[in-house]
Amino acid sequence: MKPFMDHNFLLHTETARKLYHQFASPLPIVDYHCHINPEEIAIDRTFENITQVWLGSDHYKWRLMRSNGVEEAYITGDAPDREKFQKYAQTLEKAIGNPLFHWSHLELQRFFGFQGILNSKTADAVWNMCNEKLSRGKMSVRSLIKQSHVSLLCTTDDPADDLRYHQMLKEDPSFDVQILPTWRPDGAMNLERPDYLDYLKKLSAISCVEIKTFQDLKRALSIRMNAFHSMGCKICDHGMDYVMYQPASKEEAEAIFARRLSGEALTEAEILKFKTVFMIFSAQKYKEYNWVMQLHFGCRRDNNRAMFQKLGPDTGFDCISDFTPISQLAGFLDALSTKEILPKTILYSLNPGDDEKIAALAGCFQDPEAIGKVQHGSAWWFNDNKTGMIRQMTSLANFGLLGNFIGMLTDSRSFLSYSRHEYFRRILCSLIGDWVENGEYPNDMENLKTIVKDISYNNTVRYFEFDLDTV
Question: Which one, 52, 147, 148, 209, has the greatest CB density within 10 A?
């Protein structure tokens, strides 16, 4: 029997162990997509206890606790932090096979030096040990980032954000990790939302453009893109139910926008037409700025209306959608390619049934402008577990070039989530090790080293053109 999560955790072949320990493990981390709050980095937030840093904004853990019948007071409510931690420890006892069991113990091992098992019996000792280390003042937000060997991370930011904390970080010579904004314009595109007109007021204020037409909206967004670009932004991100393609003229889009401003109800067809024109405009700008376009889709959000009204979005009530029309995604990419405005693009679907479709479609839009120009993005959200990662990388290998893959991201709001990169790298090396030891790929360690280092780090640096050295 193998020891629990030891030095060779998930590395069950000699080749895998060599690839991970010699080549993958020492590499820095580039976290090119996360939801960390830049304010907390700028002020270098500290935490009073493990619950604040561990459970404070992690809807993965919240969802698991609800599955164990834990009352909301112990999840997002006002129960004491010590009791919330106890409830999570009790939940973890039943989480066999869940990636959170591995992630949680990796976080305890790497950040707190705890090599045991967290459960209801050990919770008190783990609580005291973690809090004692937090109280020393050496586990602030910045120190956690540095301890994780992060060289660059990209936050997720709204066009109406004033980027003040990014400016503070840019001007702070005491912290050498690059913190870059990411353009996330969902609020500007989703005109069907009840609060859309209120959002436009915020965008008008920050851009100094009175938004009365769709042309005004594009002008306001262009001004904010310039501001983001000046702060080092290199990436945009769109969270969508699916990638739509219902082409319409600029005149139609203007008329639809005018109807929305006047308070008229829009049809589903009108909403899709406006969003299609919005996305084509956006892609053209991204191409001009040489930004990478991320498209996240295949998610059905806020399914529990009562809990959404109580807690808001991103609190653990989303699921996988079964409606992700690849034909419309193909039409959208084709329209951009025909107009010669297709930027480097990463495609992520929450539906694992789309893996092969995305991997096959990506191959239709490659060109010499960039290696792996259209990427099949890493296993996302409900799929960033051992099974999902293996499935995504196997699909990519079957249909394209795994060696050009840009690898892992945290997609997290937690400063302890960098251990997910370790989890990914171990799984990557295990998968490659299996192929080598099964005689499916040569045991050419020099070439294997290049592949592992590229997927873990170098491809990311080159693809996004970050100001970092490859290794």
Answer: 148
